[in-house]
Design brief:
This protein is an alpha+beta fold. It has helices spanning 13-16, 20-39, 41-53, 63-78, 89-106, 109-128, 130-135, 137-142, 154-171, 199-216, 220-252, 254-282, 296-300, 303-308, 315-337, 460-472, 491-504, 507-514; strands at 177-179, 182-185, 188-191, 355-358, 375-383, 388-396, 419-425, 432-438, 442-452, 455-457, 479-487. Helix 5 runs antiparallel to helix 6 (109-128) and helix 5 (89-106) packs parallel to helix 15. The radius of gyration is 29 Å and the shape is flat. Its main location: membrane.
Length: 518
């Protein structure tokens, strides 16, 4: 009988290239991440849509390849470490899932997206252990830049830009007056619009500045200084940009200045600012180009990490814990979102003593929008002395994404209209005061309140906290928004709103009675 040698099976080249101690942990991590991306796909699809279609977040498209590059830099050192699954990492994962759950059930998209992203580094900590996680600390932290955050800063940045602009305008000898975000000059009225707030450049510069601070500096103080410059310089530069547009308009006309702003300031100016910032920081770089990305000897010899590794656990057990937490969080969210408070099919504005309902007549049409509300009311009341107020009410059976009181676009300033926010107004009876203006000619004062359960106030943060508590406990309570507004921005408008509130009594009880809760 003739015997032939039979070759032993060989592993795929990709498997052979992975250090033996890494093969099972990486498989566990891949399975866990695949499950998390599938179960929480809604958040990732929403975020990807922002990255692609919203110019404020286009820079995030570069974050995934940057993360891959950061890990690739560390591969030689990582290959010498031994991953160990670590069950306390499940606590970090549970925390990330709690953030997602609170955001998901309350409609706070930033929280739900932050939680979804934070699940990935938390899972890496649980399945690879504290030693490897410490070696990957910066890439794991940098992954949080996948969250599209920045629109919340627009109102604040508008006001800062307006203040810088008017200061530079006066310093350059141009007479100008400012009211809110409007700057009146001899050649015309300028508005520091949302698109001029500089948020796009700021959030992109912070992401880039964080990367440069880590890659080019060793000193903590130098890193902090560069990060501070990455925040301050873009804000100041945006104010200079707005002033430059006004300055050029004084001599070349508004149309020329607007075109110059979009071409030069919109593209070249901020590229120059970015180059100047990096160039100024270049001379202070204190990290060598060939310096290893991580201190392997320090990580291997760290006693505090060795103490933490005493809580190691089998990889398959920690992986099962990841699956159990993910399924539990999604099941809880589904059950919480199913809880809604009953609302009557038909509601009407009630009669108010000393006031009568009259047809709405406005110098410039104003009506708040609340596309997510389940019930809406709008009407005008006139007192016996001729005072007039416009009243808007919106009721929500539940709070969730697309159906949340106080969300962007659901307030006193109607979106996609000529109405602009000028600034805050003194509160009346605990409401949030806003000074609005349309086409530079029609001022309006608006006061906003929210009602949830027995609470009435104007804090969106408190409203979110109450909503999260109730939905976590499966408690059904409706939420209401009330906006009382009057034309004019002075004392007469304030007096009209105050007198109307005196007539209706406690505003929270009044909102409840309209839907039969009192």
């Amino acid at each position: 009988m003739r015997l032939e040698a039979i070759s032993s099976p060989t592993r795929a080249p990709l498997t052979e290239s992975i250090a033996p101690q890494w093969r099972a942990p990486l498989l566990h991590l891949a399975l866990a991440w695949a499950a998390l991306l599938a179960l929480f796909a809604g958040e990732w699809v929403t975020m990807a849509g922002h990255w692609w279609s919203n110019s404020t977040y286009n820079h995030i498209l570069f974050v995934p390849p940057i993360l891959a590059w950061l890990v690739w830099q560390r591969l030689p050192e990582l290959a010498r470490l031994t991953p160990r699954a670590w069950w306390p990492g499940l606590l970090a994962l549970a925390g990330a899932m709690l953030v997602w759950l609170l955001g998901n059930i309350s409609g706070l998209a930033t929280a739900s997206q932050l939680g979804a992203v934070a699940m990935l580094p938390a899972t890496a900590l649980a399945l690879l252990g504290p030693r490897v996680a410490y070696a990957l600390l910066f890439p794991l932290f940098y992954s949080l830049f996948l969250v599209p955050f920045g629109d919340e800063l627009v109102p604040v940045l508008q006001m800062i830009t307006a203040d810088i602009t008017i200061a530079l305008t006066h310093a350059s000898g141009i007479p100008a007056e400012i009211e809110g975000v409007f700057i009146d000059t001899p050649v015309g009225l300028f508005e520091v619009a949302e698109a001029c707030s500089g948020v796009k450049f700021l959030v992109a510069m912070v992401a880039l500045g964080t990367l440069i601070a880590n890659q080019c500096y060793r000193s903590v103080w130098r890193r902090m200084a560069f990060l501070a410059a990455s925040v301050i310089v873009p804000i100041i530069a945006n104010g200079v940009r707005a002033w430059g547009t006004i300055y050029i308009a004084q001599f070349q006309g508004i149309e020329f200045a607007a075109g110059f702003d979009h071409i030069f300031y919109g593209w070249i100016f901020f590229a120059v600012v970015m180059a100047v910032l990096i160039g100024a920081g270049w001379r202070f770089f204190d990290r060598r180009v060939d310096e290893p990305a991580i201190d392997l000897a320090g990580i291997e010899g760290a006693r505090w990490i060795a103490r933490l590794e005493r809580f190691a656990a089998p990889g398959w057990a920690v992986l099962a814990g990841v699956f159990a937490l993910a399924l539990g969080a999604t099941a809880w969210a589904g059950a919480a979102r199913a809880v809604e408070a009953p609302l009557p099919q038909a509601i009407v504005l009630p009669q108010v003593a000393g006031w009568e309902q009259v047809p709405t007549v406005q110098a410039w049409s104003w009506r708040p929008d609340s596309p997510g509300a389940d019930r809406r009311l709008f009407g005008t009341y006139r007192s016996a002395t001729g005072q007039r107020v416009d009243v808007f009410l919106a009721y929500y059976a539940a709070q969730e994404e697309g159906r949340e009181a106080g969300a962007y676009g659901e307030g006193a300033q109607p979106l996609d209209t000529e109405w602009r926010w000028l600034g805050e107004a003194p509160a009346i009876d605990g409401g949030k005061g806003d000074r609005l203006q349309a086409v530079g000619l029609h001022p309006r004062l608006a006061m906003t309140w929210y009602r949830h359960g027995d609470w009435t106030g104007s804090s969106r943060l408190e409203l979110k906290a109450l909503t999260m508590r109730d939905r976590l406990l499966f408690t059904a309570r409706p939420t209401a928004t009330m906006i009382v507004s009057a034309e004019g921005g002075g004392e007469e408008a304030q007096a009209a709103i105050a007198d109307f509130l005196d007539a209706i009594g406690p505003s929270g009880k009044w909102m409840d009675r309209i839907v039969g809760l009192d």
